[in-house]
Amino acid sequence: MTIKTKLQLGLLFLFGVIVLLGGMGMYYLNQLKEESANILTDNYESISYVQKMQESLDLNTQTDSLAMITFEKNLQQQEKNLTEKGEKEETIELRKVWNLYKTQNNTQFLPSIKAHLFEIATINQNAIFRKNEAAQMISQEALNYLKIITITCLLISFTFVINFPAYLASPIKQLTEGIRAITAKNYEQRLHFSSNDEFGELATAFNLMAQKLDEYEHSSLAQILSEKKRIEAIINKLNDAVIGLDDHQHILFVNSVALDLLHINQEELVGKSALDVALQSDLMRSLLNHSTDNQEIKIYTGGKESYFSKEWILVENEEKLLGKVIILQNITKYHELDAAKTNFIATISHELKTPISSIKMSLSLLENPKIGELNPEQQGLLQNIKDESQRLLGITGELLDLTQVESGKINLAFEAVSPIQIIDYASMAVGFQAQQKSIEFQIDLAPALPQVWADAEKTAWVLVNLLTNAIRYSEVQSKILISVVQEQNQVVFGVQDFGKGIDAKYLDRIFDKYFQAPNSPKGTGLGLAIAKQFIEAQQGQIQVKSEFGQGAIFQFSLPIYQG
């Protein structure tokens, strides 16, 4: 039986009790009403008629015609109200005697008339007493029945009121306690009430849910522990140092490589705040310092200096930060290879300059008419060899500049230099290339430009490199804008061309060594990388802005000479 059905039956029972009590009360009240009405209608009126007739007899009916009329009128009323046994016979006899009295006008009939009136009154009075006793019996009977039914209904209703809410509340209370236990991850909680209604179905469903959660918890926990051990083993086998932090900067795990670098026991790290550890460890402080991002970290370990690159990995779930992982990658091998490469390039470049110079000298001699005249084909070949030799000499120079930059041995001759001086030198250096493509330089100089504190030769080299690239990517008969403005304590140089521009996906790599965008003229890919190093070595910044098909703007800044 469902709860809905039980509620309907309970409410139907209460409704039946109300109907029963109301019906019985109405029935017995109606009985009492009828008895009372009968007494008034049947007996009390007859006694009233008799009383009025007696009063008329007390008057002198022989002389008082009104008394005769009153008696006759009340007698007629009495003849219409014959309700009791014997009342009819007495009324008939009263009529006979009264008629004799009226026709003979003899007073000897008066005692007989009074006797009949007395008998009628006695009959009605006895009826009143009898009906009153019947009404009292009906009233007492109704009262007894109502008492029994009321007490019975009260007992049943009291039992219903006490037990039915408990029947509803007890399962709900057990269910609430069960849900709280499940919330606290006590998946062994069960509901122990059973019934064939919705509560029984609810208990069955709840117990099944708790059983599945318990199975899932134990199976998941075992799987998680297994995966945790496997991940820890993998992390410990890595050659890179790995440190895991939660969202509150507490250390979750540290692999063996990181322990060797920090020189701290695992028990003193795991579970501790990384900020507290940083107070005692310079390396941890450097790892937490974001200003050291993208910088090589030099650490003395294993009896030698080693180099590491730092990488942050953010662990997120639905845009909520769960923690961070710091990875220190050992790049000592690459650092050593890079140093060997730099030395090798420096040596080769230096050695190449001598034969290239000899080739250029030989070319100069061949161009001398004293050696002999050359035909046009020979002059073309000679010019081609001369161009390639010049290109080879330029590449060798860039490589030497690169080795100087990578070795950290950039020799800068700082001096107070006028920006106009740098612009004039660079524009003259590339003037011939611009003329060949009919490119016009438009120079926009801000008024009253201050001097910059820089190496004039290196800065001019950078500007020449930017102008050379602008000419290379510009169309014939176009223009290049050269601008110089002052921004706070910096002077900003700008070179803008209107060529095909640079695709946005390559902008972040444009200053990387050896990088060349696809479909661009062949080169070494070193010019912009060297330019970046030269500018940053002078405490300046270099950047590029471009939209594909709209040209490019290269800008670099240098500090103002403070005097």
How would you characterize the overall build of this protein?
With about 575 residues, the protein is α+β, with helices and mostly antiparallel strands. The protein starts with a helix and ends with a strand. The chain is built from 14 helices and twelve strands. It is about 60% helix and about 15% strand. A hairpin with a 2-residue loop joins β4 and β5. The mean pLDDT is about 80. The strands form three sheets. It has a five-stranded antiparallel sheet. Strands 7-9-10-12-11 form a five-stranded mixed sheet.
Keywords:
single chain, 563 residues, alpha+beta, five-stranded antiparallel beta sheet, five-stranded mixed beta sheet, 14 helices, 12 strands, 60% helix, rod-shaped, kinase, membrane
Mean pLDDT rating: 79
Run of helices and strands = HHHHHEEHHHEEEHHEHHEEHEEHEE
Category by helix and strand content = alpha+beta
- The number of E-state strands comes to 12
H/I helix tally: 14
Helix fraction bin: 55-70%
As a whole number of angstroms, the C-alpha radius of gyration is 62 Å
Note the overall shape: rod-shaped
* Cα distance spanning the termini: 101 Å
Strand order of the largest sheet: 2-1-5-4-3
Organism: Flectobacillus roseus
GO molecular function, one term: ATP binding
Protein name: histidine kinase
Transmembrane segments: 12-29
SSE layout:
Layout: H1 3-58, H2 65-79, H3 87-104, H4 110-183, H5 198-237, E1 241-246, E2 251-254, H6 256-262, H7 274-278, H8 282-288, E3 296-301, E4 304-317, E5 320-330, H9 332-367, H10 376-406, E6 414-417, H11 419-429, H12 431-436, E7 440-445, E8 452-455, H13 456-473, E9 479-487, E10 490-497, H14 527-537, E11 541-546, E12 552-559
Parallel strand pairs: 7-9
Antiparallel strand pairs: 1-2, 1-5, 3-4, 4-5, 6-8, 9-10, 10-12, 11-12
